[in-house]
Amino acid sequence: MSSAAPPTGPVESAPPRVAIVTGGSRGIGRRTVGRLAADGYALVVGHAGNRDGGEAAVAEAVAGGGRAVAVRADVADEHAVATLFDVAEAEFGGVDAVVHAAGRMRLGPIAELDLAVLDDLHRTNVRGTFVVVQQAARRVRPGGAIVTFSTSVVGLALPGYGAYAAGKGAVEALTLILARELRGRDVTANTVAPGPTATGLFLDGKDEETVARLAAQPPLERLGTPADIAEVVAFLVSPAGRWVNGQVVRANGGIV
Question: Which residue among 164, 194, 229, 252 is the active-site one?
Fold first, then answer.
């Protein structure tokens, strides 16, 4: 008895999953671009104006065998953010993951902080998050994932971080409500809250003594790295992370 010969024609591979990463030109966002590219994602790299960084992130993704494009977008501008999604759909066919890593940090005592600084900070960190996840809620495909960023300072309540932590507390609340509003869509929504992480945003303006003190806080006695956080994001958007939903993941080396 002879068995049928296996097909000899070309086998079509499944289209890549597609991710939008805001803040993808530097720090955690840029490392996340490379990590997701390694997992086979096609990437739209959003940046606020750091064109060189955005193009470098694209080049790194492509060098690793991925596909990527960079798009300038102010995350607080709803039209610019809609364009990010338009590009993802036009270039790659849709959106499966949104990683909103764009953010700003300004520190100062509550009693002394200029309210213009507060407004500027919250425009990016609060309104920007709302605008991005609003588009994500409308356009991420079933089986997809949305990841926003908070900070472990929300729980630590460190002096000087009042404005920044208040905005990130809003991000946590927004994301947890989003997860519940996405009921029936098969889309997860989670927040990652890093502890002290060696990014330009974190290190800017801090002397060596301050950095050493902060690095000693976790039981693991070091600063986190962008790669540490990118691994958490990669898990949350992967099939392995499907049962994690509506959570704040405090990726901070054990700070309590």
Answer: 164
